Amino acid sequence: MIVSARYRRRVRSSGVWLDVAVVFAIVAVGVVIAAATNDPGPDATPVGSGYVAEPVEYPVRIPGCATVEPPEEERAYAYEVAVGELVYDDPANTWLDAPKARAMSDSLRRALPGGVVTSDASAGGSISGDPFEFEPIPRIDPALDIDPGTTADGVVARNGGEGVVAVNVARAEPGPVECRADLVDSREVHSDGTVVDVQETWSEYDGVRTTTRVVRVYWPDGTHVTASASNQDAQLRTTETVPLSIDELTVLALLPELRWTAG
What we know:
Radius of gyration: 17 Å
Strand content: 35-45%
Shape: globular
Largest sheet: 8 strands, antiparallel
């Protein structure tokens, strides 16, 4: 059996924030992890010509951003970086044990908005198969200098449409986060220094458009939460509805129980 789950989030590597997509292919003998980033690397190839992203205006003023960085050209590469079993209580990630993951999952499920119907399974990558269950953190080659974090996802139906909702939680270096024109529509900075970035964007592949809403929260303790919802179902078929609004995703991303320092 082979299933996969994909998510995209921002990580800090050697002082630079990267937009990273991590793909998990779960097979009978273990887990194979491939990473794709906007850092070209020696074997990079341009994103396929069948893919079209929403055009990005630059220079541009973004609400809440004192300065705005230019968009970066997206390139991708993939390779196997680890094979093994995913487990909680990993010495490399001591903050996420089984009770912590359970508490995070319970909090996330309770916070899902009313009027949504959750399927009985995750969107594809959950080892347990349960929706919105935070999984063990996969081991990544230390040379990559990234933290893939823990992800919980599920297929949600609402108003006759279906889409995937995913929440990723990872640790990052605390500090300023630049506004990049292709990643932020608006920013809000809370009194405690928490940064909340929101974005709604679209992409097309072979003429089929997918709309995605994303909320990225950077807590002062270095917790990085990315909550997203798209109008693709578990089979990557485009539907009519993005199941959660930006405000609803913001509620999920700001759950205090998701912080890595939360008890």
